[in-house]
Write a structure and sequence with these properties.
This protein has 242 residues and is an alpha/beta fold. The protein contains 9 helices and 10 strands. InterPro entries: AAA+_ATPase (IPR003593), ABC_ATPase_HisP-typ (IPR030679), ABC_transporter-like_ATP-bd (IPR003439), ABC_transporter-like_CS (IPR017871), MetN_ABC_transporter-like (IPR050086), P-loop_NTPase (IPR027417).
Length: 242
Amino acid sequence: MIIQVSNLTKNYGDLKVLKGITTQVAEKEVVCVIGPSGSGKSTFLRCLNQLEEMSSGKIVINGHDLSDPKTDMNKVREEVGMVFQRFNLFPHKTVLENVMLAPVKVKKMSQEEARKQGLALLQKVGLQDKADVYPERLSGGQMQRVAIARALAMNPKVMLFDEPTSALDPELVGEVLAVIKNLAKEGMTMVIVTHEMNFAKEVGDRIIFMDQGIIMAEGHPSEVFGNTVNDRLRSFLGKVLA
C-alpha cells in the first residue's frame, strides 16, 4: 500500500474534525472522497502531506512515517503532488516558468532539462501554446491545468486533489476533469476530494464517504452509490444527485 492511515485524529482545540480515520490506498488506485461541507474531507487530505498536523494516529506514505519526527517532510512532499481549489500560480512568472520552478529549485534540475520537461507537461494538459503567457491571461480552467502540470513536474508518486473544480465556472469544469481522467488511465495514484459525483463514479476505483469526521461508507462506486442501507449516505446522495 502506498498510503496507510491508522486512527487519524485532528482537533482544533475542543473541536474534533477527524475522529479516528483508518484507510489505505494501493499503488495506481484512484480514491474519491465525497461528503457534505464540513465533514473533514479537506482536512483529511491536508493531513496526508502534513499541511495540517495530525493530532494523533499514524500516516505512512511510500514508506515514510509522517508521525516520526525524524521524517523529512520536504522529501515526502517531493513525492506527493497537491492541487488546491485555488490555483496558487505565481502571477509574475509565465506559465512555463511556474512549471519549471520547483524542479530547478528543489531537484536542482538544469534550466534546459526543466524547460523540456515543462513543455512536455504543458502539452499533456493541452496548454503548450500558453507557455509564455502570464497567469492573468488564462481562464480558471487553464490556470488549474497549469497547477496540475506544476505538481506533475516533481514526478510525484501520489497526487492529492482538493476540490480541483469547485472554484471554476461550470463550463470550465470538464477540461480539468479530462486531464485528471487521463492521469487515472496512466496509472497515477490519486486521492481526490470532489463534489462532482458523476466524475467520482466514473474515475474512482473506490469511494470514501465522510461525514462528521468519520468514514461512514467506503467501497467500489457501485456499492457506495447504490447503498440504500446507510441513511446518512442516502440522504446526502439524494440531495447532490437530485
